[in-house]
Amino acid sequence: MNRWSAHSGQSVPSALHILWAKSDPKNDQTFHPLLCHLIDTAAVAGQLWTKVLREPCRHRVAAALGLTDQRAQLWTAFWAGSHDLGKACPVFQAMRPQAARSLQEIGFDFPVGSKARHGQVSCRVLQDLLCDPQIAPPVTSALARRLATTVGGHHGLFPQTIDVDRLASSTLGNSAWMAVRRQVLRLLAQAVGVVELPAANDPPENDHASLMFLAGLTAVADWIASNTDFFPAVGETWDPVSYPDQAADRAKDALETLGWVGWQPEASEPLSFAELFPRIAEPRPLQDLAAAQAATLDGPGLVLIEAPMGEGKTEAALFLADHWTHAAEQKGLYVALPTLATSNQMFQRVQTFLSGRYPSERINLHLLHGHAMLSDRYEAMRLAALYDDEPGAVAAAVVAESWFAQNKKQALLAPFGVGTIDQVLLAVLQTKHVFVRLFGLAGKTVILDEVHAYDTYMSTILERLLEWLAALGCSVILLSATLPATRRRRLLETFVGNPLNVTEAQYPRMTIVRDGAVQSLPIAIAEDRRMELNLEWTKGDDLPERLRIALADGGCAAVIHNTVNAAQETYLRLQKALGDCGIEVELFHARFPFGRRDQIEERVLHRYGKPGEASRPRAAVLVATQVIEQSLDLDFDLMVSDLAPVDLVLQRAGRLHRHRRTRPERLIRPRLWLLRPDENKDGIPDFGPSKYVYAQYILLRSQLALLDRSSIRLPDDLEPLVEAVYNPDSAVDVPPSWQEALQESLAAMRQQDRDHRHQADCLVLRSPTCEDDILQDFCGQLEEDNPETHHSLQAATRLTEPSVTLICLYQVLDQVCLDFEGNEPTDLDQPPSLPQAKRLLQNAVTLTHPACVKHFVAQSPPPAWQKSALLRFHRPVLLDAAGTACFGNYRLVVHSDLGVMIEKTHCGKDADELQPDR
Predict the structure, then answer these.
(1) Distance in angstroms between the alpha carbons of the first and the last residue of the chain
(2) I need a labelling partner for 276 at 20 to 30 A (CA). Which of 337, 745, 878, 905 fits?
């Protein structure tokens, strides 16, 4: 940060000692001058540029402006600093009466009735002042408008031209205001050091990524510069000559203390796969291929890995990400997964990986999803950073720096993150501060796992995300069991921005995109990884007896249903039928209170996980839903599944014989039983509730593809089966009676896909290379946290049914308790502390039953909960000692083994007779 020019020939006008930017509402004497805050923000932006951003990221922005990296640093710092110039206006300064009186005394007017947001005023005045050669080398009027809108949006929303143009002249004040704004901006330019620099060039009109990057840099710099721990209010006692250097020192201290510069990737020779994963004695062929191809990845690109479960995709992805970090100077990593449970599992793996990769460095890693605060591992890492003996110390550890843990937007700014895919999809939805998320992702490697799991709506958002990641210089790694050919091509072409001509290798494959070119490579499969499943169809009524016979000599089976209700019913039937046979029966689904679900998940992983880590039961059946379909490392001897889309059936089958272990004689070969749906009089399957979960057309095609098979060879049959189902032009024998049902369901699916794609298109940012002015098209009014907002205003990353989240509490005598024994009382009238709120969330369950949603959404959360960020959208449900609550014509039951059940009943005098034993 440079000092004021020594030959400027003038002292600071008295108004500059009065104009304020930050104040203490409890003490009118305490304020921080406007010019000081602009210099603070510029200083932080400059430090972020040099200390946090990596060279490729800096160069990308500098090149767009026609500047060297060093000159781009100074210009971006100046523009970021100018963000609050609009606070030099009557409306804002009048909010501190003492300042208003002092300004009036020296000729500043305060017109009555003036209204404006200071961001709009900044936008209005900067459009002219950035073109003024008396202030700094001028930019073109077109660039001035774009820059003014960009930095004027630092509170989350870009000022719209229609609103800015409507600002009354009285809002801007008289000539005294105009003169002082010019003087403030001139002094800021001198302090930053841009007065003698060449002017920036106009970036291409369709380069929206550079402006979003600048918007994110400005907002983050403003947040840090507004922290009074580092930038205390100086009032009128500040030295204009020395202040820029003081601000630079404070900015450096702030970034070091807050954890921004604890780890920096160095351009160095990347480690080998063996060095990164010393415990893997024999890498799988996929991992060898990743190691061989890494040397060709010297710049941002995309890698798509399609391979069955158990081939080491995660380690291959982490290896490639580490290579990009050090060979291409990417600035960190985000791993995105489809669910909260899979995110928690991956978080532990990434923490272990980073601990081994950087044993002598302090690494800042965060968990990003709605229940991250309930993770004991994440909380321990957060506390380790918070209570370190020396703030900002470089103690060797993987921690969660507290500044980044304040919210999910700030967490995405950390160099390393693991969380749900929703957190990165939000980076392209029109929400407040969307540009902060984009700034956080810029220049990182982003791993997107289980990309086959996303529907049309989510895939549309994902495609726009890929466009923005490419524009921001990110590298992307996509992981999938397999993808239909059309879906694969769409993802690749979206990232590149052009049609691709590629000869695809056979499945499994690795597809690499670099410098606009694409290469498809086959992945070898070791013979011991090839598997042939015995495929049989069975009826649900026959299941208990068939399982009893199959598990007579021991073994572990999984029964996967498409709905929670079906899983609960099967669990009760099997428990009754197999209870006396020495076969344990367990239930796992998403409709348990959160804490109980967490316990069950831990138990399931312990009992059915890797050999050596698991305490495997002799004979057991786990009845579950899709919660065990993805990413959880489970291993069963026998699999039973509802019919589902064929790729998901095979994904479920990936839990069969996953590890080498001794198995019962009759289960030596992996066995997959599919539950055959009932049929109507024309022989057409009736999929029951499953047709509300999956498209009927895909279910029909899946049944046709699998019906006459007695075995499935993996991985050989995987891609042909997927194409047979998802490619409408693939040849398949269709019974005459099915023709009409197939045609109707295909038309319905295509219409639904169009509707869902349109819904997503209405919510996402425009393309980063579109010809339109996306800053003016940006609405930013979508609500990302409030589930009760009308669906048209929700920043929904998924299309889901309306839901309500309940906190299950128990009425025990005259107390409200967290447990039915009455050992943990709670007071609904008192705002809960953070530990109390976290304990309450252990009893949370999200329900979509329409009657339940209607009843409980109509009830406001307790006023004390509305003050808690964790609980403000949750409702309590008071249960009796048996875990039962009645509402309307329904009864809600919370059972330790079954989870939550909602039954239609008559709740009245005979309600007690309807309550089951716990």
Answers:
(1) 68
(2) 337
